[in-house]
Amino acid sequence: METIYLPVMLDVRGRKCVVIGGGKVAERKTLGLLEAGADVAVISPALTPVLSELAGRSSLLWLNRHYAPGDTRGAFLVYAATGDREVNEAVAREADALGIPVNVGSHGEAGSFITPGVFRRGRLTVAVSTSGSGPGVAARITKLLDDTIGGEYEQYLDFLYEMRREIKRRETSPEIRKALLKKLGTLEVLDEIRAGTFMEWGPERIASWIAQNREE
């Protein structure tokens, strides 16, 4: 039966994540984990220059050896990214037995999760997966998003984030909060940013907008 994956955004800040392998695949996995704030341990007798530099800066923990049973214990996530299919499968079996989500770089079906292509624009994160059809296709779709979604979304989402935070801080009523957040989505701020006419909202304007719209 075909696998249908559940899209999930995980908070891995400060979480122990283990990467088995030190090649290019392991490098990609590690960089993504570090970007998300994970506490990364890389287990491999050799590293790419990029991983070696990160280890030298103490950005990750490097265990200079081959994988050994027990290496996945205590991890939040595990990535089996060696060039040896049998080793990757052994890592996956151990992680599964311990109830730890595991990604297998050599053949994704052996793991419990796959990593999508990721497009970021400030607070916007879009994950692209072809469910194993081919990473090249996912990469092209991700590039298409990069060409389509402009930098205006970064400023727009920052505006929405600040407004939502102020609404939640100022209003205790769930009903009023819901109504204000709904009205927030109707503002033509994105069009103003695109046209170059948008002016940042200060505390007074934010307070005035909330007061005016909470009474409507």
Q: Characterize the overall form.
A: elongated
Order of helices and strands: EHEHEEHEEEHHHHH
Helix count from the secondary structure assignment:
8
Main pleated sheet: 5 strands, parallel
Stretches where pLDDT is under 50 for at least 5 consecutive residues are none
How many individual β-strands? Answer: 7
Adjacency order of strands in the biggest sheet? 3-2-1-4-5
Question: Over all CA atoms, what is the radius of gyration?
Answer: 22 Å
- If you average the pLDDT, what whole number results? 92
Q: Alpha-carbon distance between the termini?
A: 53 Å
Helix percent band? 40-55%
User: What percent of residues are in strands?
Assistant: 5-15%
Structural class: alpha/beta
Summarize the helices and strands and which ones pair or pack.
Elements lengths: L15 E5 L3 H12 L3 E5 L5 H8 L4 E3 L13 E4 L4 H14 L3 E3 L12 E5 L2 E5 L6 H14 L3 H19 L3 H11 L4 H7 L7 H12 L2
Parallel strand pairs: 1-2, 1-4, 2-3, 4-5
Antiparallel strand pairs: 6-7
Helix pairs in contact: 5-6, 5-7
Please provide a written account of the structure.
With 216 residues, the protein is of the alpha/beta class. It has eight helices and seven strands; from the N terminus they run E-H-E-H-E-E-H-E-E-E-H-H-H-H-H. The strands form two sheets. A five-stranded parallel sheet has the order 3-2-1-4-5, with helices on both faces. A two-stranded antiparallel ribbon has the order 6-7. The model has no long low-confidence stretch (mean pLDDT 92).
